[in-house]
Design a protein that fits this description.
Chains: A mainly alpha (359), B alpha/beta (473), C mainly alpha (350)
Strand content of chain A: under 5%
Number of helices of chain A: 14
Largest sheet of chain A: 2 strands, antiparallel
Strand content of chain B: 15-25%
CATH topology of the largest domain in chain B: Rossmann fold
Structural class of chain B: alpha/beta
CATH class of chain A: Mainly Alpha
Shape of chain B: globular
Distance between the termini of chain A: 12 Å
Oligomer: heterotrimer
CATH architecture of chain A: Orthogonal Bundle
Number of domains of chain A: 1
CATH superfamily of the largest domain in chain B: Response regulator
């Protein structure tokens, strides 16, 4: 996976742009506008930071924890693309399936009594970890099967693979509806986790599990970075991204690497699904939702980039959270336009995403 | 990689298979050309001609509910309710699954054919399904839909089909009857606004609330619910400081919960369907115990939801058209009948989903019996009977107003600790508001703006007669 | 000039086409009212939507998932500008509203095109998908324009009359619109503009070096696609007499993609063939007990099968059949290998 861009030095880039004054002017205007709007919404609207620090802190935490969840999911998506150039449109379906699997397993283990009523969570640590493992591995296996059966023999045909994964996601969605029903379900967090934690900051008490998700996201990010940069497997992955044929010619079993990477990517979607299912809920509309989120995160951050996924997730999570609360009264339902604006802004300046590389 | 010739042969087989499929589809599709009957494999029951009692012409009743979307989990209840009046008249369930229908159904000596339909809570799909049932399956009577926005669309559609009678399932948006006023669309249960009668009064006078926030899904049904609450609460002097509208299907309510001011006295929770559980859980995490700050809509007392919510909602007051703790013989008989016919529906008799579809079918049956199944002349006699019907429903009498909208009692209820031993909190009726009509004591008329995010405005007005300030209480 | 020779191949293409055209011309006499309206007319406007996708995919190399959003914009704009229940309270003349709807959709299409015209292949697909879904959320959340319940009872021009009671009018309008769109596309692709687009599809850098403004041309092509999609949008609102966000959500977007792929992503006729197949299958499966509400699984499996085995869709299958028959019946022609390589998906290099 790429860690840096092949960016020209800033001076050179500016010189190139200067040659097309209209393009330069447009970009400057758009970026300036974007930054202005962002600052205004964040800080000046309703004197957020000064007058109501408590609300501001909660909203900030909401945004960060959401960003953490989005990061975990989007990383899987961008990993698969970065290495294999496969746009896995069934990524959201894997997220959803993991949530449902975990819920079912937990239900079996706890005898159906695991609703997390306030103050008492009826699931022990094991009764959360086991569903997590089962769901992640299960979804990982589905991912490998998908890759081996449907995607292995048409590598290089991006569009066709996208269509195949779309078809698979449609089938999964319909079957999930048939087997798991339409009701949203809740995975119970382990009872060893406190329900809320006092942050000793502006008198805020915040749900512990959400903070846990953020910590997991950071851990996942660090672990992936370490794996890519420091392990042999990561080295092969980076080499494979650059030149697949050469890697193969060097005697490395590139197909095995691909399968493992797909497994890892799918497992990340699964991890996201279980975390999201505990933090929010598991629902049959999750597949569309988290596919869209993954898409937006990598459009902003650039395909195949870990840092890009982090930035993209942060941007999306924060805009989502702040937009819902701090847009002027009466316009709060326009928050989707903010996201749209964010996308436009990024694409206007860098069509391949902030850290994206051309294919 | 397979070699060329093998791949070619595989492709040929695939092509042949696809071709057969295509031809099959086209053949089936074109089979519907000439007579408009359609591929009538969709009926669930035979037209019974046995027994000697069924001697009249068959009457086709189409029933549709939600089999996809946020309300899909309630489909079983709607069908259970709809089938019960037929079972009371001698029909037998096909299986333990209510959506499979019944056999040997007759009303007034006419065999009844049941046709299945399903939509997904969106208006488009609902109308498509209604069109299929009415125009292709040629049903005489259509029961449905389930969801608020669907109801408005289907009521509009009913105007195009004067030859079919439409009876609402459980869709609760106000406009469906108050604004659309289709002459062949009937609703035998209260709408969302009527279901909140009594809550504003209780909040102001019993709980002492003065400042309230409302939160509800962003579509027609919660608009109607909250409209009723706001009208009543504000008329007697209360103030609604903020109205929050998360999108339907939104599962992460944290940013909305954050917007509820700390110092508000209470809030009205109009988030429904499967979002109720997520909301309550997240509120508990972010704000703590909620039972003394929250007032609920009809979803909170639904048996399926209540089971998920558990003890955290004990003490919460809600209102609606069913009273799960009623000891009236008629109600007990109805509940028992439902549980006997469909064991999986045991304990769900108080669900509005079951009750709404039940009253629809019951009204149809009684009206048909009154006119001996005469559907001639565009159902003239039948519709006359329906309009004038005084339905003796298990929880009280139901009459229709001039827009064919029900007038019935509303029950103020409190969720209390489980005392039936089934592990699910119970519901106690604390007050009955008699004969609530759709104008909600004069607040709403065809000329007032439709309930939406800002309407009705929060203003002091003539209080409804059932409130303390209005002379009731 | 002599008329073109009557070969086996030509007969196999033109024969069915003529039969279909005759059947359609006599539509109201052959089909029941319900079938005419619910299946055939719907196939026309869905086909137009798919045609906009196929035009962009086949002739410009841009597979866009934003067509449904664009037709939604046209539909919602018109619905808000004419008398209706819901949305804004403006009540213009329906024809003016229609024109305005189309103009607005084309304008937005040009904007979307400007945003995405420097992205290619799969990136382009993703961006148009994101734009499409964001449009859905926009209409779902902005209650002044729609909200979840959408806009009902949209006023239609007199000539459209009542699509339920009187389907023949809308049927012919949709038929003519489809024919018009088809002819328009065929004309455009033969024009210098169209040829430039095909050049861009095949080799953008070469076109750039020849002096063509590639981003501008792609943007304009997207605008043309938006024009076609907006015709579909207007027709869909007339057909439904309403429009709601559910009409343009992700499943509808995927429906149009499925139609285009099943019909044949690189043949224009495939748009309508695919649409008819889809609508007829949907209609048929609802009545069949064993399938019931699992239509999506069925269509998903068919879609998957087509993508895996016959990327040319139904038109591709028909093409293979005609090739096969033609070869059998004309032994004088030397056996040629199939024109398309076994695992090709389309002309555009990725």
């Amino acid at each position: 996976m790429s860690q840096g861009t092949e960016a020209l030095p800033l001076r050179q880039r500016l010189r190139v742009l200067e040659a097309q004054p209209l393009a330069l002017a447009m970009r400057v205007i758009i970026v300036g506008l974007g930054v202005f709007v962002l600052l205004w919404v964040l800080f000046f609207a309703q004197d957020a930071l000064t007058k109501e620090p408590r609300t501001f802190l909660i909203v900030l935490l909401n945004g960060l924890t959401l960003a953490g969840l989005y990061f975990v999911v989007a990383t899987g998506f961008t990993l698969i693309f970065g290495l294999m150039r496969v746009v896995n449109m069934a990524h959201g379906s894997l997220y959803m399936l993991a949530g449902f699997f975990a819920f079912q397993v937990q239900k079996e283990l706890t005898g159906g009594e695991a609703t997390s009523a306030f103050g008492t969570s009826e699931a022990s640590l094991a009764e959360w970890i086991i569903p997590l493992v089962v769901a992640c591995v299960g979804v990982g296996v589905i991912g490998i099967v998908m890759q081996q059966v449907f995607l292995r023999w048409n590598q290089g045909q991006d569009l066709r693979q996208a269509l195949i994964t779309i078809a698979i996601s449609i089938i999964i969605a319909d079957q999930a509806l048939a087997h798991f029903g339409g009701i949203a379900e809740d995975i119970a967090a382990p009872d060893v986790f406190p329900e809320t934690v006092d942050l000793h900051l502006a008198g805020v008490s915040y749900p512990f599990f959400r903070i846990f998700v953020l910590l997991v996201a950071i851990a996942v990010g660090l672990a992936l970075w370490a794996m890519i940069q420091r392990t042999r497997f990561g080295m092969i992955v980076r080499a494979g991204v650059d030149d697949r044929n050469m890697v193969s010619a060097l005697g490395i079993n590139i197909q095995l690497v691909f399968a493992s990477a797909f497994f890892l990517g799918a497992m990340l979607a699964g991890l996201g699904g279980v975390l999201g299912g505990t933090m929010i809920s598991v629902d049959k509309s999750n597949d569309t939702q988290y596919l869209l989120i993954s898409l937006i995160v990598v459009i902003i951050g650039g395909m195949g980039s870990l840092a890009g996924a982090a930035i993209g997730a942060l941007a999306l999570g924060l805009v989502d959270s702040f937009g819902d609360v701090y847009l002027p009264e009466g316009y709060t339902n326009y928050s989707v336009l903010l996201i749209f604006g964010l996308l436009v802004l990024v694409l206007a300046v860098r069509p391949l995403g902030l850290f994206g590389r051309p294919a | 990689m397979r070699d060329r010739s093998e791949k070619g042969r595989l492709r040929l087989w695939a092509l042949l298979a696809t071709l057969v499929l295509v031809v099959g589809v086209l053949a089936a599709g074109c089979g519907g050309d000439d007579d408009g009957d359609g591929e009538a494999a969709g009926t669930q029951a035979d037209t019974s001609t046995g027994g000697g009692e069924a001697s009249g012409e068959p009457i086709k009743i189409g029933i549709f509910s939600n089999n996809e979307g946020a309300f899909a989990p309630f489909e079983g209840q709607t069908w259970g309710g709809a089938m019960l009046p037929l079972i009371e008249r001698g029909a037998t369930p096909v299986s333990g699954d209510p959506t499979k229908g019944v056999e040997n159904a007759t009303i007034a000596g006419h065999p009844i054919e049941i046709v299945y339909g399903g939509s997904d809570s969106t208006p488009d799909k609902a109308v498509e399904e209604a069109r299929r049932l009415v125009e292709q399956e040629q049903v005489d009577i259509l029961i449905g839909p389930l969801s608020g926005s669907e109801g408005i669309a289907v009521a509009n559609y009913s105007k195009e089909q004067p030859g079919t009678t439409f009876v609402n399932g459980i869709s609760g948006a106000q406009d469906t009857t108050l604004k659309v006023r289709s002459p062949n669309f009937f609703r035998f249960h209260n709408d969302g606004t009527q279901w909140t009668a009594g809550l504003g009064d209780y909040a102001y006078n019993e709980l002492g609330w003065r400042n309230v926030v409302t939160i509800g899904d962003d579509y027609d049904f919660p608009y109607s619910q909250i409209a009723g609450f706001v009208a009543e609460f504000c008329s007697i002097g209360g103030n609604v400081t903020k109205r929050l509208w998360p999108a339907l299907g939104e599962e992460d309510y944290s940013s909305f919960i954050t917007q509820i001011p700390e110092d508000v006295d209470g809030f009205f929770m109009g988030v429904g369907g499967t979002g109720t559980v997520a909301f309550v859980k997240q509120y508990g995490q972010l704000r703590g115990n909620l039972s003394d700050k929250i007032m609920g809509g009809i979803f909170m007392t639904d048996p399926v939801i209540l089971k998920e919510l558990g003890s955290q909602v004990e003490g919460v007051v809600t209102a609606g058209m069913t009273a799960g703790d009623s000891q009236e013989p008629a109600y007990l008989e109805y509940a028992e009948g439902l549980g006997t016919a469909y064991p999986e529906l045991e304990g769900t008799a108080s669900s509005v989903f079951a009750y709404g579809y039940y009253t629809a079918m019951q009204a149809i049956a009684e009206a048909l019996e009154e006119v001996d199944g005469d559907l001639s002349d565009d159902h003239a006699a039948f519709r006359e009977a329906l309009s004038n019907l005084e339905l003796d429903a298990p929880l009280g009498t139901i009459k229709l107003d001039e827009n064919r909208q029900a007038i019935m009692d509303n029950f103020l209820q409190q969720i209390v600790a489980d005392n039936t031993g089934d592990g699910v909190p119970d519901v106690k009726t604390i007050k009955t508001i008699p004969e609530v009509d759709q104008t909600f004591a004069g607040f709403f008329s065809p000329e007032t703006p439709s309930p939406d995010r800002e309407n009705p405005a929060c203003e002091k007005a003539e209080p409804p007669p059932w409130t303390q300030q209005g002379g009731g209480g | 000039m002599r008329p073109p020779a009557l070969t086996v191949e030509r007969t196999l293409w033109w024969g069915p086409a003529l039969v279909i055209l005759v059947v359609l011309a006599l539509g109201p006499l052959i089909f029941s009212d319900y079938y005419l309206s619910a299946v055939i007319t719907k196939s026309f406007w869905l086909g137009i939507a798919a045609a906009s996708l196929i035009f962009l995919a086949a002739y410009v190399g841009m597979v866009s998932l934003g067509q449904v959003a664009l037709y939604g914009i046209a539909g919602f704009t018109m619905a808000n500008l004419v008398a209706a229940d819901g949305g804004s309270t403006i009540a213009w003349n329906p024809w003016v509203g229609t024109l305005a709807g189309i103009l607005v959709a084309v304008a937005v299409g040009l904007v979307f095109g400007a945003i995405s015209n420097r992205s290619y292949g799969i990136y382009f697909l993703m961006i148009t998908l994101a734009l499409g879904v964001l449009t859905y959320y926009f209409f779902a959340q902005v209650t002044q324009l729609s909200g979840f319940g959408g806009v009902n009872n949209v006023a239609r021009p007199g000539i459209v009359s009542n699509p339920v009671g009187d389907p023949a009018n809308l049927f012919y309008i949709a038929l003519l619109a489809s024919a018009g769109v088809y002819l328009l596309i065929r004309y455009v692709v033969r024009s210098p503009f169209g040829l430039a687009l095909q050049g861009i599809r095949d080799d953008p850098s070469r076109m750039r070096s020849l002096g063509y403004n590639v981003p501008l041309l792609r943007m304009l092509a997207f605008g043309l696609g938006a024009l076609i999609a907006s015709v579909a949008g207007i027709l869909s609102v007339w057909w439904n007499t309403r429009i709601s966000p559910g009409s343009i959500d992700l499943s509808r977007t995927l429906d149009v993609l499925i139609i285009a792929v099943i019909g044949g992503l690189y043949r224009l006729e495939g748009a309508w063939i695919g649409a008819f197949f889809f609508v007829a299958l949907d209609n048929w499966t609802r009545g069949v007990d064993i399938v019931g509400s699992r239509f999506n699984t069925v269509i998903g499996v068919i879609f998957l099968a087509i993508v895996l085995l016959s990327p040319g869709g139904l038109m591709g299958i028909w093409g293979s059949i005609t090739d096969f028959v033609a070869r059998r019946l004309s032994p004088a022609r030397t056996a040629q290998p199939p024109v398309r390589p076994a695992n090709e998906t389309g002309p555009a290099p990725e």
